[in-house]
Design goal:
mainly alpha
């Protein structure tokens, strides 16, 4: 499974590196959303400082929708999905590989957005360990859930509009938990944030296991 996962992840990342969709479209979109939030909420006021964790993760989720849709679209062209069905690749490995590629793209975006909130919002991280753990758990949760739901809507003509409608409600717990953990990390009270980080990790494990088990069925049925 892990060999197949590395093959799929390498393929998706090579396609992204050559097309530069993430670099030229998703990253500028994410930064633009941060800038618009800063203008809308008065960068000199306390409201923006209090809202920084939530705005950060809302921006991550919006950007993740683009990355997930792009990942699903890679298998919709040139008969790639049919080739995956006929190949000897483990469906669980395909799921893990696609989720890992999405997670790698999201991790790069999160670093970029982290620099953005420090510069634009004046954020001052007090607990770097909690921030990194939260980002890791949330990234795995978003990538695994998005890959699973991307396979669920693949083949449908309305998949571009249906995917956000299905995915965002499911990711609401991730948004809440990640925001609460970031609030504790930025507020200098990491002890209150670790339980939220644990909830994120639980969510990530559940959807990773569910995706690995169900992806083969979705691949055959799409």
């Amino acid at each position: 499974m892990w060999r197949d996962a590395s093959l799929i992840a390498g393929r998706d990342l090579r396609v992204e590196a050559r097309s530069r969709v993430t670099l030229n479209q998703v990253a500028p979109f994410a930064l633009l959303v941060l800038i618009l939030f800063a203008f809308a909420l008065d960068p000199d006021g306390p409201i923006l400082e209090r809202a920084t964790p939530g705005l950060y993760w809302v921006t991550v989720l919006f950007s993740a929708l683009l990355a997930i849709a792009r990942s699903a679209a890679l298998d919709e062209t040139d008969g790639v999905r049919d080739a995956l069905r006929l190949s000897a690749l483990d469906p669980a490995g395909v799921f893990v590989g696609k989720a890992a590629a999405v997670a790698a793209e999201l991790a790069a975006l999160e670093v970029l957005l982290g620099v953005g909130v420090i510069i634009l919002y004046g954020a001052d991280p007090a607990s770097l360990g909690l921030l990194l753990a939260t980002c890791l758990a949330a990234t795995v949760a978003v990538a695994s859930t998005g890959t699973l739901y991307g396979a669920l809507v693949s083949g449908l003509r309305v998949r571009e509009t249906l995917l956000p409608l299905l995915l965002l409600p499911v990711l609401a717990p991730v948004l809440i938990a990640a925001t609460r953990a970031f609030e504790s990390a930025l507020g200098g009270d990491p002890a209150r944030g670790w339980p939220w980080c644990g909830l994120l990790a639980t969510f990530a494990v559940l959807y990773s296991v569910a995706g690995a088990l169900a992806y083969g069925t979705l691949l055959e049925g799409s």
